[in-house]
Design brief:
It is a single chain. It contains three helices and eight strands. It has helices spanning 17-38, 52-62, 94-97; strands spanning 3-7, 10-14, 43-45, 65-67, 77-84, 102-108, 118-122, 127-129. The strands form two sheets. Strands 4-3-5-6-7 form a five-stranded parallel β-sheet, with helices on one face. The longest helix is centred in the first third of the chain and has 22 residues, at 17-38. The radius of gyration is 15 Å and the shape is globular.
Length: 139
């Protein structure tokens, strides 16, 4: 269970490097392997900052290209991010999601306009502090 901290700006879930590693190797990669067996990924893209750590691991695991900028013409690209919170970042992949893109996130918030193909945890606090973030809140 992740640590929950109460701040003047609301509740914050502390997500550690250990939890990230466990989630990636014990949950995310096995789930992605099932999809990859049916429709192999040709590349992975993770938004800079939040998705880049997971994208790097996935790129090595599946031996696929990791793009700094998403390729909209890519045959079967995997899009990975830390959270589908509002859905703004991931929404540009919706028109093609069924055809080409698999979207995977560590966390999913019910308010998101995008429901990822795979998500591991549900956001239930005001903020999640990921290990690659410096601040406890968005302020």
């Amino acid at each position: 269970m992740n640590e929950i901290v109460h701040t003047p700006n609301g509740t914050v879930e502390i997500y550690s490097w250990k939890e990230f590693q466990s989630d990636m190797y014990e949950k995310m990669l096995p789930a992605l392997e099932s999809i990859h067996a049916i429709q192999p990924f040709t590349s992975v893209w993770g938004p800079p900052r939040g998705g880049l750590f997971a994208a790097g691991i996935i790129s090595y695991w599946f031996d696929i290209a990791l793009y700094i900028h998403p390729k909209t013409n890519e045959e079967s690209m995997l899009v990975v991010d830390d959270i589908a919170d509002t859905g703004k970042t991931l929404s540009r992949f919706l028109p093609l999601e069924k055809r080409r893109y698999t979207i995977a996130t560590l966390f999913y918030h019910r308010q998101s306009s995008v429901v990822p193909t795979i998500w591991l945890r549900e956001k239930t606090t005001d903020w999640i502090k990921f290990p690659w973030e410096r601040k406890m809140t968005p302020d």
